[in-house]
Each structure stands twice: as C-alpha cells, then as structure tokens.
Amino acid sequence: MKPARVYRWVEHTAELELELEAVTEREVLADALSAIGELLEDEEQSPGCNAAPAPLERRALHAGAALAPLERRALQAGARDRPALLAAWLEELLFLAESEGFIPLQIADLSIDADCLRATVVGRMGAPRPLVKAVTHHRLEFEPTDGGYRARVVFDV
Fold first, then answer.
1. Which of 34, 47, 53, 124 is surrounded by the most beta carbons within 10 Å?
2. How far is residue 11 CA from its own chain's centroid?
3. What pTM was computed for the model?
C-alpha cells in the first residue's frame, strides 16, 4: 500500500516553510506545484480553506463567476542536485505567477534528469497573491526516505 502524499505549511516570522512527503520524486514536484497554486490562488476566486478542492475540470466555474480558461506553460529548470532543482522549480513557478499572472494547477507532463527537469504545467491566468518574495536555500532538502521522498523549502515572505 502506497503511503499518502502529504504536505503542510509551517509558519515562521517573515518565512513560510513547505514540507513535502511523497512516494516518488515526481509526486514531490507535483505536490510542491499544488501547494504553490493554493498559496497563490486569487482570494475572490478561491473556495476558502474549509472547502474541498474541486477537480481541475470544475475549476473553470466557481460560485457562478467565470474563471479564466485553462492554459499550458512549458518550463525548464536546472540545478546541481535535487534540493537545488526543487528550489529552481519553485522559482520558475513563482516567476510565471509574478510576470504573467499564471496560477499553476497541475503538471501535465514532467521529465527529470540528473540535473534538469522539463515540464508542461496547466494553470490559469489570474491575480496571484504577491505573498512570496523568494525561494531560499535555508533548510532546503529533497531526499529519499524508507517510504519515498521528503522535501522542505523555506520561502521569504
């Protein structure tokens, strides 16, 4: 039986820490994208903290308000090791949010090499919350465990 994928946010003064646990590296990266998408989600279009997440197909409409149509973006990130690759991945997602207003929702395609990842990300245009200033390398980790992988990244907010 596969262990469930898990992520949680840990608050710090001027920092926000994301901890991830998953069976595969791909799932760690997918969960990191989901967490970032949740963090960046438009406040007026977000279903709120207590609502169950809607399937991607139903996110096109929420509370009677039309949302932007789903779009795709190709991303590439490179780094010397897995922790740095995780940080580079998140930096790319945050750059798209800040520069284009693109809110990532899921990975459509992902390939990972020793020092590079290439992905197609599905998301929508919106007004992402300008919460994250930077991805830091403080306490950064992405490593195998007995049951899969564990990762941690700290954001400057």
1. 124
2. 17
3. 0.79
